[in-house]
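User: two proteins, same treatment. go.

Assistant:
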Amino acid sequence: MGQQAQRTARRRRLGSALRAAREAARVNTTDAAAAIHGDNTKISRVETGRHRLTRLELDTLLDLYEVTEKRTRERLVALASEGRKKTWWCQYRDMLPGDFKESLTLESDTARISVYQPQVVPGLLQTREYAKVVMTGSPDRVTDEELDFYLDFRMERQRIFDREKPPQYLCIIPEGVIRQRVGGASVMAAQLRKLLAVSRPPAITIQIVPFSQTAFTCTGGAFNLYSYPDPMDLDVVHISHLDSALSLEEDETVAKYRWVFESLRASALSAEQSVKLMTSIAEELEQE
Protein backbone atom coordinates (compact mmCIF):
# COMPACT_ATOMS: atom_id res chain seq x y z
CA MET A 1 0.00 0.00 0.00
CA GLY A 2 3.03 2.30 0.32
CA GLN A 3 2.37 5.77 1.57
CA GLN A 4 -1.37 5.43 0.98
CA ALA A 5 -1.59 3.44 4.19
CA GLN A 6 -4.62 2.75 6.29
CA ARG A 7 -5.23 5.48 8.84
CA THR A 8 -4.68 4.70 12.47
CA ALA A 9 -5.89 6.63 15.48
CA ARG A 10 -2.39 7.90 16.18
CA ARG A 11 -1.89 9.09 12.62
CA ARG A 12 -5.22 10.90 12.71
CA ARG A 13 -4.24 12.58 15.99
CA LEU A 14 -0.89 13.61 14.48
CA GLY A 15 -2.62 15.04 11.42
CA SER A 16 -5.04 17.03 13.54
CA ALA A 17 -2.18 18.42 15.63
CA LEU A 18 -0.20 19.42 12.54
CA ARG A 19 -3.19 21.16 11.03
CA ALA A 20 -3.76 23.11 14.25
CA ALA A 21 -0.08 24.07 14.35
CA ARG A 22 -0.13 25.17 10.70
CA GLU A 23 -3.23 27.30 11.17
CA ALA A 24 -1.83 28.83 14.36
CA ALA A 25 1.32 29.77 12.45
CA ARG A 26 -0.82 31.13 9.58
CA VAL A 27 0.97 28.95 7.03
CA ASN A 28 -1.07 28.00 3.98
CA THR A 29 -1.08 24.49 2.51
CA THR A 30 0.88 25.59 -0.56
CA ASP A 31 3.83 26.84 1.51
CA ALA A 32 3.68 23.80 3.78
CA ALA A 33 3.71 21.46 0.79
CA ALA A 34 6.62 23.30 -0.81
CA ALA A 35 8.67 22.94 2.36
CA ILE A 36 8.51 19.13 2.09
CA HIS A 37 8.67 19.11 -1.73
CA GLY A 38 5.07 18.02 -2.17
CA ASP A 39 1.77 19.50 -3.24
CA ASN A 40 -1.41 20.61 -1.51
CA THR A 41 -2.85 17.12 -1.84
CA LYS A 42 0.03 15.70 0.20
CA ILE A 43 -0.59 18.13 3.06
CA SER A 44 -4.29 17.26 2.97
CA ARG A 45 -3.48 13.55 3.23
CA VAL A 46 -1.08 14.21 6.10
CA GLU A 47 -3.65 16.22 8.02
CA THR A 48 -6.36 13.57 7.56
CA GLY A 49 -4.05 10.76 8.66
CA ARG A 50 -3.72 9.17 5.21
CA HIS A 51 -0.03 9.84 4.59
CA ARG A 52 3.00 8.92 6.63
CA LEU A 53 5.66 11.54 7.15
CA THR A 54 9.36 10.83 7.29
CA ARG A 55 11.19 12.16 10.33
CA LEU A 56 12.85 14.81 8.14
CA GLU A 57 9.48 15.93 6.75
CA LEU A 58 7.99 16.12 10.24
CA ASP A 59 10.90 18.15 11.59
CA THR A 60 10.67 20.48 8.59
CA LEU A 61 6.98 21.14 9.17
CA LEU A 62 7.44 21.63 12.91
CA ASP A 63 10.19 24.17 12.22
CA LEU A 64 8.02 25.92 9.63
CA TYR A 65 5.12 26.06 12.09
CA GLU A 66 7.46 27.35 14.82
CA VAL A 67 6.69 24.45 17.16
CA THR A 68 9.63 24.84 19.54
CA GLU A 69 8.31 23.48 22.84
CA LYS A 70 10.30 20.30 23.52
CA ARG A 71 7.48 18.26 25.07
CA THR A 72 5.11 19.01 22.19
CA ARG A 73 7.71 18.02 19.59
CA GLU A 74 8.47 14.79 21.45
CA ARG A 75 4.78 13.90 21.56
CA LEU A 76 4.33 14.47 17.84
CA VAL A 77 7.45 12.47 16.99
CA ALA A 78 6.14 9.62 19.13
CA LEU A 79 2.81 9.72 17.27
CA ALA A 80 4.60 9.63 13.92
CA SER A 81 6.93 6.77 14.87
CA GLU A 82 4.14 4.16 14.49
CA GLY A 83 4.22 4.42 10.73
CA ARG A 84 7.91 3.51 10.59
CA LYS A 85 7.87 0.57 13.00
CA LYS A 86 7.90 -3.06 11.93
CA THR A 87 5.41 -5.14 13.87
CA TRP A 88 5.59 -8.85 14.64
CA TRP A 89 2.42 -9.45 12.64
CA CYS A 90 3.45 -7.59 9.47
CA GLN A 91 4.26 -10.91 7.76
CA TYR A 92 0.56 -11.81 8.06
CA ARG A 93 -0.71 -8.40 6.88
CA ASP A 94 -2.37 -9.69 3.70
CA MET A 95 -4.37 -12.27 5.67
CA LEU A 96 -5.84 -9.85 8.21
CA PRO A 97 -8.87 -7.56 7.88
CA GLY A 98 -8.12 -3.84 7.84
CA ASP A 99 -10.06 -3.04 11.01
CA PHE A 100 -8.25 -5.84 12.83
CA LYS A 101 -4.87 -4.45 11.76
CA GLU A 102 -5.72 -1.13 13.35
CA SER A 103 -6.60 -2.95 16.57
CA LEU A 104 -3.26 -4.76 16.46
CA THR A 105 -1.46 -1.47 15.92
CA LEU A 106 -3.16 0.03 18.95
CA GLU A 107 -2.28 -3.07 20.95
CA SER A 108 1.36 -3.28 19.88
CA ASP A 109 2.88 -0.61 22.11
CA THR A 110 0.17 0.45 24.52
CA ALA A 111 1.05 0.93 28.16
CA ARG A 112 -2.34 -0.14 29.50
CA ILE A 113 -5.33 -2.01 28.11
CA SER A 114 -8.66 -1.62 29.89
CA VAL A 115 -11.24 -4.13 28.63
CA TYR A 116 -14.94 -4.58 29.18
CA GLN A 117 -16.31 -7.73 27.55
CA PRO A 118 -19.90 -8.75 28.41
CA GLN A 119 -20.15 -11.80 26.12
CA VAL A 120 -16.96 -13.85 26.14
CA VAL A 121 -13.57 -14.07 27.82
CA PRO A 122 -11.34 -11.50 26.04
CA GLY A 123 -9.16 -12.91 23.26
CA LEU A 124 -5.86 -12.15 24.99
CA LEU A 125 -6.92 -14.43 27.85
CA GLN A 126 -8.57 -17.27 25.92
CA THR A 127 -7.41 -20.88 25.75
CA ARG A 128 -7.11 -22.35 22.29
CA GLU A 129 -10.10 -24.66 22.87
CA TYR A 130 -12.31 -21.83 24.10
CA ALA A 131 -11.20 -19.60 21.22
CA LYS A 132 -12.07 -22.32 18.71
CA VAL A 133 -15.65 -22.49 20.00
CA VAL A 134 -15.95 -18.70 19.88
CA MET A 135 -14.57 -18.48 16.35
CA THR A 136 -16.80 -21.21 14.98
CA GLY A 137 -19.76 -19.26 16.33
CA SER A 138 -18.88 -16.28 14.13
CA PRO A 139 -21.08 -15.46 11.11
CA ASP A 140 -17.91 -15.33 9.01
CA ARG A 141 -17.45 -18.80 7.54
CA VAL A 142 -13.83 -19.99 7.43
CA THR A 143 -12.12 -23.13 6.20
CA ASP A 144 -10.38 -25.50 8.61
CA GLU A 145 -7.06 -24.12 7.40
CA GLU A 146 -8.14 -20.53 8.04
CA LEU A 147 -9.47 -21.48 11.46
CA ASP A 148 -6.12 -23.00 12.41
CA PHE A 149 -4.37 -19.83 11.23
CA TYR A 150 -6.58 -17.55 13.31
CA LEU A 151 -6.23 -19.79 16.37
CA ASP A 152 -2.44 -19.79 16.04
CA PHE A 153 -2.52 -16.03 15.55
CA ARG A 154 -4.63 -15.49 18.67
CA MET A 155 -2.24 -17.57 20.74
CA GLU A 156 0.71 -15.61 19.30
CA ARG A 157 -0.97 -12.33 20.25
CA GLN A 158 -0.96 -13.42 23.87
CA ARG A 159 2.84 -13.22 23.89
CA ILE A 160 2.36 -9.49 24.41
CA PHE A 161 2.47 -10.35 28.12
CA ASP A 162 5.89 -11.99 27.73
CA ARG A 163 7.69 -8.99 26.30
CA GLU A 164 10.19 -6.98 28.32
CA LYS A 165 7.70 -4.21 29.10
CA PRO A 166 4.22 -5.75 28.85
CA PRO A 167 1.15 -3.55 29.08
CA GLN A 168 -0.87 -3.42 32.25
CA TYR A 169 -4.09 -5.31 31.58
CA LEU A 170 -7.36 -4.54 33.37
CA CYS A 171 -10.36 -6.71 32.51
CA ILE A 172 -13.98 -6.40 33.67
CA ILE A 173 -16.42 -9.19 32.78
CA PRO A 174 -19.89 -10.02 34.11
CA GLU A 175 -20.40 -13.21 36.11
CA GLY A 176 -22.52 -14.63 33.30
CA VAL A 177 -19.43 -14.86 31.08
CA ILE A 178 -17.61 -17.20 33.44
CA ARG A 179 -20.72 -19.27 34.13
CA GLN A 180 -21.73 -19.82 30.51
CA ARG A 181 -20.39 -23.23 29.53
CA VAL A 182 -18.84 -22.29 26.23
CA GLY A 183 -17.63 -25.55 24.69
CA GLY A 184 -18.92 -27.59 27.61
CA ALA A 185 -17.84 -28.10 31.22
CA SER A 186 -14.29 -29.28 30.52
CA VAL A 187 -13.49 -26.47 28.06
CA MET A 188 -14.90 -23.85 30.43
CA ALA A 189 -13.11 -25.30 33.45
CA ALA A 190 -9.80 -25.14 31.58
CA GLN A 191 -10.57 -21.56 30.55
CA LEU A 192 -11.21 -20.56 34.15
CA ARG A 193 -7.99 -22.24 35.23
CA LYS A 194 -6.14 -20.13 32.69
CA LEU A 195 -7.74 -16.96 34.04
CA LEU A 196 -6.65 -17.97 37.52
CA ALA A 197 -3.12 -18.70 36.32
CA VAL A 198 -2.64 -15.34 34.57
CA SER A 199 -4.38 -13.20 37.18
CA ARG A 200 -1.53 -11.35 38.87
CA PRO A 201 -2.41 -7.77 39.80
CA PRO A 202 -1.36 -5.15 38.94
CA ALA A 203 0.12 -6.68 35.75
CA ILE A 204 -3.07 -8.55 34.83
CA THR A 205 -6.19 -7.80 36.82
CA ILE A 206 -9.48 -9.63 36.28
CA GLN A 207 -12.59 -8.41 38.06
CA ILE A 208 -16.04 -9.96 37.89
CA VAL A 209 -19.30 -8.02 38.11
CA PRO A 210 -21.42 -10.43 40.21
CA PHE A 211 -25.04 -11.34 39.69
CA SER A 212 -25.72 -9.83 43.11
CA GLN A 213 -24.64 -6.34 41.98
CA THR A 214 -27.68 -4.05 41.94
CA ALA A 215 -26.02 -1.00 40.40
CA PHE A 216 -26.34 -0.51 36.65
CA THR A 217 -23.83 1.09 34.29
CA CYS A 218 -24.83 1.76 30.70
CA THR A 219 -21.90 0.55 28.58
CA GLY A 220 -23.17 0.35 25.03
CA GLY A 221 -21.41 -3.01 24.66
CA ALA A 222 -17.85 -4.32 24.69
CA PHE A 223 -14.89 -1.95 24.30
CA ASN A 224 -11.13 -1.70 24.76
CA LEU A 225 -9.47 1.43 26.10
CA TYR A 226 -5.81 1.74 25.08
CA SER A 227 -3.64 4.16 27.05
CA TYR A 228 -0.16 5.35 26.11
CA PRO A 229 2.48 7.01 28.29
CA ASP A 230 4.14 10.36 27.80
CA PRO A 231 5.30 11.72 25.48
CA MET A 232 2.59 10.13 23.31
CA ASP A 233 -0.22 11.26 25.63
CA LEU A 234 -2.96 9.40 23.78
CA ASP A 235 -5.93 7.28 24.81
CA VAL A 236 -8.04 5.45 22.23
CA VAL A 237 -11.30 3.55 22.59
CA HIS A 238 -11.69 0.62 20.18
CA ILE A 239 -15.07 -0.96 19.54
CA SER A 240 -15.54 -4.06 17.39
CA HIS A 241 -18.75 -4.83 15.53
CA LEU A 242 -19.72 -7.90 13.50
CA ASP A 243 -18.52 -6.44 10.22
CA SER A 244 -16.45 -3.41 11.21
CA ALA A 245 -14.62 -1.65 14.02
CA LEU A 246 -14.42 1.89 15.30
CA SER A 247 -11.57 3.79 16.94
CA LEU A 248 -12.48 6.85 18.99
CA GLU A 249 -9.89 9.33 20.21
CA GLU A 250 -11.80 12.56 20.82
CA ASP A 251 -11.10 13.66 24.40
CA GLU A 252 -14.75 14.02 25.40
CA THR A 253 -15.68 10.60 24.03
CA VAL A 254 -12.69 8.87 25.59
CA ALA A 255 -13.47 10.49 28.93
CA LYS A 256 -17.00 9.07 28.77
CA TYR A 257 -15.71 5.54 28.22
CA ARG A 258 -13.11 5.98 30.95
CA TRP A 259 -15.90 6.95 33.35
CA VAL A 260 -17.88 3.87 32.29
CA PHE A 261 -14.90 1.60 32.90
CA GLU A 262 -14.21 3.03 36.34
CA SER A 263 -17.91 2.72 37.23
CA LEU A 264 -17.79 -0.94 36.21
CA ARG A 265 -14.69 -1.48 38.34
CA ALA A 266 -16.47 0.07 41.31
CA SER A 267 -19.37 -2.35 40.89
CA ALA A 268 -17.17 -5.41 40.39
CA LEU A 269 -15.70 -7.76 42.94
CA SER A 270 -12.11 -7.10 43.95
CA ALA A 271 -9.40 -9.08 42.17
CA GLU A 272 -9.10 -11.36 45.22
CA GLN A 273 -12.85 -11.92 45.44
CA SER A 274 -12.98 -12.57 41.70
CA VAL A 275 -10.31 -15.25 42.05
CA LYS A 276 -12.36 -16.97 44.72
CA LEU A 277 -15.49 -16.92 42.54
CA MET A 278 -13.64 -18.25 39.49
CA THR A 279 -12.04 -20.98 41.59
CA SER A 280 -15.40 -22.04 42.96
CA ILE A 281 -16.97 -22.25 39.50
CA ALA A 282 -13.97 -24.13 38.08
CA GLU A 283 -14.20 -26.71 40.88
CA GLU A 284 -17.92 -27.18 40.22
CA LEU A 285 -17.26 -27.81 36.53
CA GLU A 286 -14.39 -30.19 37.23
CA GLN A 287 -16.57 -32.32 39.49
CA GLU A 288 -19.09 -33.03 36.73
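Protein 2:
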Amino acid sequence: MKESGFATQDKAIARLTEIYNAKRAAPRGQAKAEHIARYGAMRFEEYAREWKAGQRDLGPASVVHLESLLNIHLVPLLGSRRMNTFDHKVVEAFILSMERNGVGLAAQANAFDKLKAILLDADRLGLFDDNPVAGIKPPRYDPNRVVIPSSEQLRQIRAAGDDSFLLVADLMSGCGHAQR
Protein backbone atom coordinates (compact mmCIF):
# COMPACT_ATOMS: atom_id res chain seq x y z
CA MET A 1 0.00 0.00 0.00
CA LYS A 2 1.05 3.51 -0.58
CA GLU A 3 1.35 6.01 2.22
CA SER A 4 1.37 9.70 1.54
CA GLY A 5 2.11 12.80 3.51
CA PHE A 6 5.81 12.39 4.25
CA ALA A 7 7.69 15.64 4.27
CA THR A 8 10.92 14.14 2.92
CA GLN A 9 12.05 11.07 1.06
CA ASP A 10 14.19 10.09 4.08
CA LYS A 11 11.08 9.97 6.30
CA ALA A 12 9.28 7.82 3.71
CA ILE A 13 12.25 5.41 3.53
CA ALA A 14 12.45 5.27 7.33
CA ARG A 15 8.74 4.37 7.52
CA LEU A 16 9.08 1.65 4.87
CA THR A 17 12.12 0.25 6.69
CA GLU A 18 10.13 0.21 9.93
CA ILE A 19 7.26 -1.69 8.27
CA TYR A 20 9.68 -4.15 6.64
CA ASN A 21 11.48 -4.85 9.91
CA ALA A 22 8.23 -5.33 11.81
CA LYS A 23 6.94 -7.82 9.24
CA ARG A 24 10.24 -9.63 9.16
CA ALA A 25 10.66 -9.89 12.94
CA ALA A 26 7.15 -10.56 14.15
CA PRO A 27 6.24 -13.93 12.62
CA ARG A 28 9.61 -15.56 13.26
CA GLY A 29 9.88 -14.15 16.76
CA GLN A 30 6.31 -15.11 17.47
CA ALA A 31 6.81 -18.62 16.07
CA LYS A 32 9.97 -19.05 18.12
CA ALA A 33 8.19 -17.91 21.26
CA GLU A 34 5.37 -20.38 20.56
CA HIS A 35 7.88 -23.21 20.00
CA ILE A 36 9.68 -22.39 23.23
CA ALA A 37 6.40 -22.26 25.14
CA ARG A 38 5.19 -25.56 23.67
CA TYR A 39 8.39 -27.62 23.59
CA GLY A 40 10.72 -25.98 26.11
CA ALA A 41 8.98 -27.36 29.18
CA MET A 42 8.34 -30.72 27.49
CA ARG A 43 10.23 -33.66 28.94
CA PHE A 44 12.84 -35.32 26.73
CA GLU A 45 10.92 -38.60 26.69
CA GLU A 46 7.82 -36.93 25.24
CA TYR A 47 9.83 -34.83 22.77
CA ALA A 48 11.73 -37.92 21.60
CA ARG A 49 8.43 -39.76 21.10
CA GLU A 50 7.12 -36.93 18.89
CA TRP A 51 10.44 -36.75 17.04
CA LYS A 52 10.38 -40.52 16.45
CA ALA A 53 6.86 -40.27 15.00
CA GLY A 54 8.23 -37.88 12.39
CA GLN A 55 10.92 -40.32 11.24
CA ARG A 56 8.79 -41.81 8.47
CA ASP A 57 11.71 -42.89 6.28
CA LEU A 58 12.98 -45.55 8.71
CA GLY A 59 12.69 -49.22 7.84
CA PRO A 60 11.42 -51.78 10.36
CA ALA A 61 14.91 -52.77 11.56
CA SER A 62 15.88 -49.11 11.99
CA VAL A 63 12.74 -48.46 14.04
CA VAL A 64 13.61 -51.38 16.32
CA HIS A 65 17.17 -50.05 16.68
CA LEU A 66 15.92 -46.53 17.44
CA GLU A 67 13.45 -47.80 20.04
CA SER A 68 16.20 -49.86 21.63
CA LEU A 69 18.53 -46.85 21.89
CA LEU A 70 15.75 -44.70 23.31
CA ASN A 71 14.57 -47.29 25.83
CA ILE A 72 17.97 -48.56 26.99
CA HIS A 73 20.24 -45.51 26.85
CA LEU A 74 18.50 -42.19 26.28
CA VAL A 75 15.21 -42.24 28.19
CA PRO A 76 16.56 -43.79 31.42
CA LEU A 77 19.22 -41.07 31.72
CA LEU A 78 17.50 -38.09 30.09
CA GLY A 79 13.78 -38.90 29.92
CA SER A 80 12.61 -36.63 32.74
CA ARG A 81 14.82 -33.67 31.75
CA ARG A 82 13.01 -30.67 30.31
CA MET A 83 14.06 -29.77 26.79
CA ASN A 84 14.96 -26.17 27.64
CA THR A 85 17.54 -27.37 30.19
CA PHE A 86 19.88 -29.05 27.70
CA ASP A 87 23.33 -27.58 27.21
CA HIS A 88 26.77 -28.95 26.37
CA LYS A 89 27.41 -29.92 30.02
CA VAL A 90 24.30 -32.13 30.07
CA VAL A 91 25.39 -33.86 26.86
CA GLU A 92 28.94 -34.37 28.21
CA ALA A 93 27.51 -35.80 31.45
CA PHE A 94 25.37 -38.21 29.38
CA ILE A 95 28.45 -39.50 27.54
CA LEU A 96 30.44 -39.80 30.78
CA SER A 97 27.57 -41.69 32.39
CA MET A 98 27.55 -44.22 29.56
CA GLU A 99 31.32 -44.63 29.94
CA ARG A 100 30.99 -45.18 33.71
CA ASN A 101 28.22 -47.73 33.15
CA GLY A 102 30.46 -49.76 30.83
CA VAL A 103 28.40 -49.18 27.70
CA GLY A 104 30.35 -50.33 24.64
CA LEU A 105 31.76 -47.75 22.27
CA ALA A 106 29.49 -48.77 19.39
CA ALA A 107 26.39 -48.31 21.58
CA GLN A 108 27.76 -45.03 22.94
CA ALA A 109 28.32 -43.72 19.41
CA ASN A 110 24.83 -44.79 18.30
CA ALA A 111 23.14 -43.31 21.38
CA PHE A 112 25.03 -40.04 20.94
CA ASP A 113 24.06 -39.87 17.26
CA LYS A 114 20.36 -40.24 18.14
CA LEU A 115 20.61 -37.70 20.97
CA LYS A 116 22.35 -35.32 18.58
CA ALA A 117 19.60 -35.76 15.94
CA ILE A 118 16.87 -35.08 18.52
CA LEU A 119 18.63 -32.04 19.97
CA LEU A 120 19.38 -30.64 16.49
CA ASP A 121 15.67 -30.88 15.72
CA ALA A 122 14.92 -28.93 18.92
CA ASP A 123 17.64 -26.42 18.04
CA ARG A 124 16.03 -25.81 14.64
CA LEU A 125 12.82 -24.94 16.51
CA GLY A 126 14.77 -22.32 18.42
CA LEU A 127 14.67 -23.96 21.86
CA PHE A 128 18.34 -23.27 22.58
CA ASP A 129 20.41 -20.12 22.48
CA ASP A 130 23.48 -22.30 21.93
CA ASN A 131 23.36 -25.68 20.22
CA PRO A 132 23.93 -28.20 23.06
CA VAL A 133 25.92 -30.62 20.88
CA ALA A 134 28.19 -28.01 19.30
CA GLY A 135 31.79 -28.72 20.17
CA ILE A 136 31.02 -32.07 21.83
CA LYS A 137 33.56 -34.76 21.04
CA PRO A 138 31.45 -37.83 20.17
CA PRO A 139 32.34 -41.31 21.40
CA ARG A 140 34.60 -42.95 18.86
CA TYR A 141 33.88 -46.45 17.80
CA ASP A 142 36.81 -47.92 15.94
CA PRO A 143 36.09 -51.57 15.13
CA ASN A 144 38.98 -53.99 14.93
CA ARG A 145 40.28 -54.82 11.50
CA VAL A 146 38.63 -57.87 9.99
CA VAL A 147 41.01 -60.59 8.86
CA ILE A 148 39.80 -62.96 6.18
CA PRO A 149 41.57 -66.33 6.27
CA SER A 150 43.52 -67.45 3.24
CA SER A 151 42.58 -70.65 1.43
CA GLU A 152 45.34 -72.55 3.26
CA GLN A 153 44.22 -71.18 6.64
CA LEU A 154 40.64 -72.17 5.83
CA ARG A 155 41.74 -75.75 5.02
CA GLN A 156 43.58 -75.87 8.36
CA ILE A 157 40.51 -74.53 10.19
CA ARG A 158 38.30 -77.16 8.58
CA ALA A 159 40.72 -79.93 9.52
CA ALA A 160 41.27 -78.78 13.10
CA GLY A 161 37.72 -78.21 14.30
CA ASP A 162 34.78 -80.36 15.31
CA ASP A 163 31.48 -80.52 13.39
CA SER A 164 30.05 -77.25 14.79
CA PHE A 165 33.31 -75.44 14.06
CA LEU A 166 33.33 -76.93 10.57
CA LEU A 167 29.82 -75.53 10.05
CA VAL A 168 31.02 -72.02 10.92
CA ALA A 169 33.99 -72.36 8.57
CA ASP A 170 31.72 -73.59 5.77
CA LEU A 171 29.29 -70.72 6.36
CA MET A 172 32.17 -68.23 6.24
CA SER A 173 33.41 -69.85 3.07
CA GLY A 174 29.90 -69.86 1.59
CA CYS A 175 29.54 -66.14 2.27
CA GLY A 176 32.59 -65.48 0.14
CA HIS A 177 35.07 -64.80 2.93
CA ALA A 178 37.47 -67.36 1.51
CA GLN A 179 36.43 -70.12 -0.82
CA ARG A 180 38.41 -72.76 -2.68
